[in-house]
Amino acid sequence: MAAGPHSIDPTTYVDELLAQASPDLMREILQGFINQILSTQADQICGADYATVSQDRVNTRNGYRHRDFDTRVGTIDVAVPKLRTGSFFPDWLLERRTRAERALTTVIATCYLKGVSTRRMNDLVATLGVNNLSKSQVSDMAKDLDVMVEEFRTRPLDTGPYLYVSCDALTMKVREGGRVVKTSVLVATGVNAEGYRELLG
Questions:
Q1: What is the pLDDT of residue 1?
Q2: Where does the chain cross the membrane (predicted)?
Q3: What's this model's pTM, rounded to 2 decimal places?
Q4: ∠ CA(130), CA(105), CA(103), 5° rounding?
């Protein structure tokens, strides 16, 4: 079925609102998420988690290379782990920058809308071309991203008073009790005293 002229994809809509409304917070979440994926990949190459003693370890870390990653919410400092033996180059991030940035912000918007689950996190990270992560690594990433999203949801709204506040309802399908049902998601935005739009919740 073709989408009508006024159909809106909820994830894309919230992704755009997050990028416009809270660029500092979005930049912080994006930076933490990217660095966490890179750290997890380096752990996988080394055969053991960072700073742990293991007989399975085949390599060790040797600091970081810092790279600037330009996004629509500003420049992010990406800490690429260095290895003692060999090299680690995250081509999924540094070669396909536009695609990776779009996918990463969509991951955050999806987690904001639908919550963070290990299965969803594994699927979303796989879309970036990052495969073969263990279940515990994906679970840890999901927990950390869930904490960052919850901090965004419960942040103080100290940039008020708001000149305008608007609410919009988005209809989307979700799985509930083993069935797919339609539900509405309320999105509140406000225009602060400086004229900037913020995603309130």
A1: 39
A2: none
A3: 0.55
A4: 40
pLDDT in tens, 126-150: 766 666 667 777 777 777 777 777 7
Same domain flag for 133 and 161? no
Q: How far apart are CA 159 and CA 165, in angstroms?
A: 13
Same domain, 191 and 104: no
Sequence-ordered list of residues with C-beta below 8 angstroms from that of 144, at least 6 positions apart, any chain: 32, 36
Q: Which domain holds residue 128?
A: 11-153
Please give the tally of structural domains in the chain.
Answer: 2
Task: Please report how many Cα atoms fall inside a 13 Å half-sphere around the Cα of residue 143, on the Cβ side.
Answer: 6
Largest CA distance in the chain: 60
Q: Which residues neighbour 131 within 8 Å (Cβ) at sequence distance 6 or greater? A: none
Mean pLDDT of the residues in the chain = 76
CA–CA distance, 165 with 39 (Å, rounded to integer): 40
32 and 93 co-located in one domain: yes
Which pLDDT band holds residue 58 (cuts at 50, 70, 90)? very high
In this structure, is residue 5 part of a structural domain?
Answer: no
